[in-house]
Amino acid sequence: MPNDWVDVCIHGVLDTGELLSRLDDATVQGAWEDDDGGKVHLYWAEAQWTEARLSALRTALADVTEACQEQLLSVTRVPAQDWNEAWARSVKPLRIGRVVIRPSWEPAELGPRDLEIILDPKQAFGTGHHATTRMLLEWLQEDIRGGEQILDVGTGSAILAMAAVKLGATSAVGVEIDPIAADCAKEYVELNQLTDRIDIVTGTLADLPQENQRPIDLVLANLDRQTVLSLAEDLASVACGGARLLVSGILVEQESEIVERFSPLGLVCADRRDDEGWVVMQFLKPESCNGEV
Question: Which of 5-14, 20-29, 94-103, 231-240 has the lowest mean pLDDT?
Fold first, then answer.
């Protein structure tokens, strides 16, 4: 184990998922966004940090921001510590409407209509703190009527799938390409006693078992710009079967590009909301995607 770590702080609002996708560096040990959304921290073991990695990071930043400026980055060396323990001490219960998210060791007061999701810190995205996840949790509380079949693409921690089921959806399938995150999601689903209603599939939409390819009412895609663009045809195909599609993980300035990508696929943006520079969009087919009226 290394003695020290390198904390690279990126100042400014950006899409962390897309940055990590562009960077494609397996040596990144973690990513953390400040609560105010104005800073992103990436961590490397000091022994693995090189000028070449700094250069690659600047190139990736240039791809996801309008300009790569020197003052966007600050690099700090920090002493080794038990990161999971430090993080665990900082995690407190979080309320988003009726949904209360808490670690297993932190009790929380629940009202008669409150729903509880237990999430212990692990290597999976999705705790409810980020605006993209928070807006979807708020939207689900307004949108779930009961009985829905949910498809959660890029499920991460499975927080959205679990919330949807606790709010009344009949079942959910979470698809996650990262095997570590998928294993975390399975543990969360078991911890919340939802294994009979939520299936986690490791892979892509093409890897869904035949028995999971049931009619879908609502598709959740909390991803990043690049992934949404690359999966647009697959997502549109599900939506053209009658499902509503909620897309998140998109910066406000990327909104028009996403709308333009889905439009020729037969989907229109029927609703949207934004917060802290991020946007959630709901896509629907106006009629049949086969051209029926």
Answer: 20-29
